[in-house]
Amino acid sequence: MTIEKQPKLTAKDQWIVLKRLLRYTIPHKMSITIAHVLLVLTITGTIIGPLIIQRFIDDYLTPMHFPKSGVIGIFSLYVGIQIFIVIVSYFQLLRFQDIALKIIQQMRIDVFTKVQGLGMTYFDKVPTGSIVSRVTNDTESIKEMFVSVIVTFLQAVFMLVGVYIALFSLDIKLTLMSLILLPIFVAIISVYRYYSADFYQDIRERLSQLNAKIAESLSGMGMIQAFRQEQRLEVEFDDINELHYKAGMRNIKFDGILLSPAIDLLYMFALVFALGYFGFSSLNGVVEVGVLFAFTTLLSRLFQPIQQVMQRLSIFQQALVSASRVFKLMDDVQMEPKQSLQEDAKIENGKIEFRNVTFSYDGQTDVLKNISFTANEGETVALVGHTGSGKSSIINLLMRFYEYEDGDILIDGVSLKAYPKEELREKMGLVLQDPFMFYGDIASNIRLHNASIHDKTVREAAEFVNAHEFIEKLPNQYAQRVTERGATFSSGQRQLIAFARTIAANPKILVLDEATANIDTETEVAIQASLEKMRKGRTTIAIAHRLSTIQDAELILVLHRGEIVERGTHQELLAQKGLYHMMYELQNSGGEEVG
User: Fold this and answer.
1) Which residues lie below 8 Å from residue 62, measured CB to CB, with a gap of 6+?
2) pLDDT digits (tens, 9 = 90+) for 189-209
3) What are 380's strand-pairing partners?
């Protein structure tokens, strides 16, 4: 399994990603302003605290002078400020958290909406687990940035400004000398950001590979166990997991050197320098103990937010890498085919015409070559041929899952590209060989949450395709719970529900991808009459593996390597003694189904 490796994020790339992330804050300007005000109040209270203690030490404790009113006043002021800080901090953090969660909520909606609009070409190339990782893990990483990193960074900036103002009020000369700390902070942060981008990008890609492998294993669990592939997949998973572990360890080692230890060492040097400065100053004059206490306390509070920023830089880097992956998905141009809408284009009769259609999935190898045929209103056109002959590709183009460039497909004389997607989906019913079932119940799977389809219509559709009989025998009947992919139902039952779903929508055109392939012979006989009723008044395009199911089709197309090599009715094709005759003889002599 290969996951596309993204190029390294340069400083310019990171800045572009950050600006794009910050655009999500625009709808929350008022809340952000209030949060900033609360943050400034919190920082102000935090800085005033040491200055109050300095006043107490120098004015009361050192001269041993404790007037009752003064001591009570300064004590009350200090306690009041601390209580104020706690209360304001709570609302400030709550406000920032609320903003962050709303931003990520919107981002996930944007990503999910984008995924819904991507063309099938994208899903053919990108593993499902990788897409899931971007929608969940990567957006979660971005959330952590908004929740902790942005708040911590703002806190550090405000604290830096406030502390330096307070330090200047205590000792201008020492504060000017301590300004040398600022470029050192910037240098450490710059070095970390430059080298850590690669580490975090590697980690996110390995995590994406893990998700892709897990998704692949879960979706194919039955096949894995049937063919005893557990050990092979365990080895492959272990290899990816080991690479993820090594990438994580490289990052941890780098963090261990440059983050906390570097700042701790810098703080130690700053503290020693400050104490040494006050020590030498005391040789030439009096040094107020309160000033010494306030200066060293404020110095520690200067380093605390810087320390927190450094610790959260890892989260910040992860978030930027994750955001770049999310934005790459959101910027992908492999969208579903676009329509050149024609005003008032409606499907009235359902006549289908393929005109010299040539198609390639990769732009290099043609899987369909000059396909031309007509399915008149109410007629059934069957597609037969060996695997890889192009049957499913014809259906994929008719359903507008893929874009075609050469030739055209017309419905009622109007190009397929001219109809609104809503019109195509409403007037075309698709039944696949392996129908997909959604979480919910049977009724919701038949109506597909279409409010215009009432319970009576659902029941009538089920009766029409002979699904009502088995549904009535279930404990909860139409309210019977449907688990993932309808795993608790047989293949035949799932197919009958899919038939009912199609009939409930009352389409003008039916597209059947071997809709009876997974149904036992007895059930197939029961629904053949239903299929005949379904086809009346509807144009039907059907892929057939069992040739016995399409003998009454008005036109049968025999495909081979993307070309129509034979066409005609069942009897006409048998008379030609060609490929169709050979397939028919093979099936009736006990051979395998074709395709």
Assistant:
1) 288, 289, 290
2) 777 767 666 676 777 777 777
3) 540
CA–CA dist 547, 297 (Å, integer): 87
- Helix or strand or coil: residue 243? helix
The CATH number for 352-588, chosen from 1.10.1130.10, 3.40.309.10, 3.40.50.300, 2.40.128.270, is: 3.40.50.300
Residues 583, 546 contacting (CB under 8 angstroms): no
The 3-state DSSP class for residue 329 equals helix
Comparing C-alpha atoms, which of 533, 530, 504 is closest to residue 519? Answer: 530
- CA triple 540-546-552, angle to 5 deg: 45
Q: How far is CA 13 from CA 30, 54, 135, 361, in A?
A: 29, 47, 21, 32
Decide yes or no: CATH 1.20.1560.10 for domain 16-330: yes
Q: How many helices (H) and strands (E) does the chain have?
A: 22, 12
How far apart (Å, rounded) are the C-alpha atoms in residues 434 and 474?
22
Neighbours of 241 (CB within 10 A): 14
Please name which of 326, 325, 395 lies closest in space to residue 120, comparing C-alpha atoms: 395
For the chain, what percentages of helix, strand and coil (3-state, to nearest 5) are there? 65, 10, 25
DSSP type of residue 118: B
**pLDDT tens string 303-314:** 777 777 776 777
3-state secondary structure of 569: coil
Query: pLDDT per residue over 8-65, tens digit each?
Result: 667 677 788 888 888 888 888 898 889 888 888 888 888 787 778 777 777 777 777 7
